[in-house]
């Protein structure tokens, strides 16, 4: 079964993962791969129902991307529903691995496994300055390009 549904996961689902979701969807649409579906979620419910952080929306907007999503928490049903579940950092990876039923464990991976610049965490930008959001954008864009490339093979 080809990978079709991808879930991007961070802590609050207001900074990193909504940005990853919007970048991925825009690249997929531009590549005529609209059958690919993406969503994002948070391991915490701290910002449930909120729009993405204005700083994420701003960096996206500056790059011609509109973030529409609202924060939601990861649900148990996500592990069966999605084909690939990408954590932004190791802390969120651990959280997902602990919750994920064995049969779906192979779907849970780190986002930067797809970063051509090398592996690591997508750093949490929440308490930092605006440059953190620019760095996040560049990193997530690189990963999404690579991911989309691989999914096409
Ligand atoms: P995110 O960033 O996980 O990329 O959405 C954060 C958002 C909110 C908080 C931490 C990180 N917070 O502490 O509320």
Provide key terms for this protein.
binds 4-nitrophenyl phosphate; globular; alpha/beta; 153 residues; single chain; 4-stranded parallel beta sheet
Indicate the topology.
Elements: E1 5-10, H1 16-30, E2 37-42, H2 54-62, H3 78-81, E3 84-87, H4 90-99, E4 108-110, H5 131-151
The protein binds 4-nitrophenyl phosphate.
Verbal overview:
With 153 residues, this protein is α/β, with parallel strands linked by helices. Helices cover 39% and strands 12% of the residues. The protein is built from 5 helices and 4 strands; from the N terminus they run E-H-E-H-H-E-H-E-H. The chain has helices at residues 16-30, 54-62, 78-81, 90-99, 131-151; strands at residues 5-10, 37-42, 84-87, 108-110. The chain has a 4-stranded parallel sheet. Helix 4 links the parallel strand 3 (84-87) and strand 4. The chain starts with a strand and ends with a helix. The model has no long low-confidence stretch (mean pLDDT 97). Bound molecules: 4-nitrophenyl phosphate.
Can I get a quick summary?
With 153 residues, the protein is α/β, with parallel strands linked by helices.
Outline the low-pLDDT stretches: none
Structural class from helices and strands?
A: alpha/beta
Bound molecules: 4-nitrophenyl phosphate
Radius of gyration equals 14 Å
Strand proportion: 5-15%
Instruction: Report the count of strand segments.
Output: 4
Mean of residue pLDDT?
A: 97
Approximate helicity band? 25-40%
**Within the largest sheet, what's the order of strands?**
2-1-3-4
| Count of discrete alpha- or pi-helical segments spanning 4 or more residues | 5
Helices and strands, in N-to-C order? Answer: EHEHHEHEH
What is the straight-line distance between the termini?
13 Å
Major sheet characteristics = 4 strands, parallel
Quick one: overall form?
Answer: globular
